[in-house]
Amino acid sequence: MMKIFGKVAAIVAGSALVATAAFAEDRKSYPAPKDHPLSEIISGYEFRTPETRALQDDDFENPAYILLDLGAELWSTADGAAGKSCASCHGDAAESMKGIGASFPKWSKERNKAITVEQQINICREEQMQADTWKWTKDPNMLGMTIFVKNQSRGMPIVLDNSPEMETVRKLGEEVYYTRYGQLDMSCANCHEDYYGNYIRADMLSQGQINGFPTYRLKWNGVGSTHRRFKGCMKNIRANPFKPQGEEFTALEAYMMYRAVGLPIETPSVRN
Ligand code: HEC
Ligand code: HEC
Questions:
Q1: Ligand 2 pocket, 230 CB below 6 A?
Q2: In CATH, which of 3.20.20.70, 1.10.760.10, 1.10.10.10, 1.20.1250.20 is domain 2-59+157-271?
């Protein structure tokens, strides 16, 4: 344990690492299922300051709502050679998109692989609308639409697709989660499983849950996707990140839905 903690300390080179058990008793947690790696499942929201939480709590203050509104507008705007909008086929998103954000990534039989919400959006744009695809991580249209789709599940608990195909995908994701990468030779678990609730520099480590993505990050001064965050964490341990929406990060996302099972969707969340 101490050895790993030394590596965490190495990242914050020179700055104080406060290794106190800073657990607040009132941190809302959800019971973990049998054999789950965590004893309790806690949203990243619970680790943030009252100021940051207040921004998320108030839909009028939450800066990500600009992109949510953009997504809502795009939903019913025709685009591409087929002259269709999302609404042409899916109607009212409050009905048709309910539960999507709480259950993706999902197995696609036609493609014989797991797909994320972002990939599904581009599949529909390309195949159904004959429209250009959007870029994965920073395109405001992609972020806005992803937020809009996932927001239809806000408050709904994450549920798992228990198909054998998705079990296999999650196995790969689990492997990625526990593999040590980079110059610092660390795994996701070294920080988010072993040390959540402890400070690393000014940041309190959370369980690294993904129930709030895409998220508005004060540090980014903007909204970012799940895979952008994965990339950032890999860069912090001086590792070469996997490709956004590639096989490894998609599998990692699927596995992290298991780590978050039962947590309500918060999209769009606000983090520091
Ligand atoms: C011409 C009709 C059509 C249009 C336009 C269309 N879709 Fe789809 N969409 C489908 C069909 C058919 C499926 C199911 C098969 C598949 O995945 O390709 C689907 C599936 C989906 C799913 C997964 C639903 C589930 O229950 O798993 C999502 C999410 C989605 N579409 C979002 C969108 C968004 C966002 C847009 C606009 C950018 C859009 N679609 C445009 C026809 C369409
Ligand atoms: C050196 C420690 C460290 C490692 C290793 C690390 N992270 Fe993080 N991660 C952080 C810090 C610090 C934050 C910001 C505070 C927080 O939410 O924990 C963070 C935040 C996150 C968040 C955002 C949580 C939220 O609620 O918005 C996710 C998701 C995440 N990490 C995933 C990962 C994944 C996946 C890996 C492995 C590829 C990983 N992290 C590896 C330090 C780490």
A1: yes
A2: 1.10.760.10
